[in-house]
Amino acid sequence: MHDRAPHTHATPQRTAPSCKPEPPVQTSPPADKGRLTAAAVTALQRTAGNTAVMRALSIGAAVPVQRRKPSANAPTEHYAGKAEQHPEWPVFQSLMQTAGCTEAETETAWQLILGGLREQSDLNQQSADPSLSKQAASKLRASNTWFKELVAFLGHKLKIGQGSMALWSGGFDTSKYAKSKGHTPLEFSPLGAVVDQLELHSDWKLQGKLWNALSVAYVSHATGPVHVFMRAYDPTSVLVKQEIPQLRKLQKLNPNIELVWHPLYTTPDGKIHEITPDLRLADDAQYTSRDKCVAAMYTYLLRMHDESNDQAGPAYKDMTNRLSANVNEKA
């Protein structure tokens, strides 16, 4: 994940990556490794379709790809009983003022965030009870009332202005890329941008449910096309398990909501490109189907990825792990 430098009291500045189109980049295909072959995936696609490939991939172990993780400088306590002593309090005040929040809103929101961290610590410990089923433990961890009160209190600050909503998977650079293309990911909404700049706690497990709560409220504001940018596919991610299913429900109520999928690949120079159906790298490549989007991304990684390209290494490694574990070569 993307690492961040220690904060100062000034609002951090972001630099979006260039979105100028680059010539198609072709790389040499990697050598076959064990059961991981382009032929194996192609055979499964032909015999059972892209959906069958997606089902097979969903069995693999998860590799976290959503949100940025805390740095080594993050606080090790939640400060719920001494909110103004949290080292990020001055930063939070500045960012909330920039977001148009009042002093009272800022103080209330800060108490809800820190109280939520404390409650999440308790919930995580309770969910470790071996007598609980996996489903019950997961439900318990997701029951943080402080985070739910936060989004009820400031959910209007998750609405976006101009442009369309964007979701993503595959590292924070994917979010920045979506923003550079004129779309708005959660992290660039008014409230999302505030939370994204904070080093709240060193334990990411205390903050993950905060982002889940923000995500639910953010997606609920969808009214038109939602662009989904994917540089990696994790079936257990917030994107796949929470955001997309929620949008599917909203689509039944609002036919103006449509999902537009973008498969991505990063070249050795660090630039992100989109993958066309004929496996070219282009400035824009849109798909109406998740399965076709992921199939294009995986096919490109299988056939065109050069293992010396460290920029695309995490996506390639994640893909190889899933395919090696789940694709039947004889299918």
Structure description:
The chain is an alpha/beta fold and 331 residues long. Helix content is 45%, strand content 8%. It contains twelve helices and six strands. It has a six-stranded mixed β-sheet with strand order 2-1-3-4-5-6, sandwiched between helices. A hairpin with a 5-residue loop joins strand 4 (259-266) and strand 5 (272-275). Helix 4 runs antiparallel to helix 6. The longest helix has 24 residues, at 103-126. It starts with 37 loop residues before the first helix and ends in a 5-residue tail after the last helix.
Question: Could you provide a short overview of the structure?
Answer:
It is built from 12 helices and 6 strands. The chain is an alpha/beta fold. Helix 7 (172-180) links the parallel strand 1 (165-169) and strand 2 (184-185).
Task: Describe the secondary structure blueprint for this structure.
Elements: H1 38-48, H2 50-57, H3 89-98, H4 103-126, H5 134-141, H6 145-154, E1 165-169, H7 172-180, E2 184-185, H8 190-196, H9 204-219, E3 226-230, H10 238-253, E4 259-266, E5 272-275, E6 281-282, H11 290-304, H12 313-326
Parallel strand pairs: 1-2, 1-3, 3-4
Antiparallel strand pairs: 4-5, 5-6
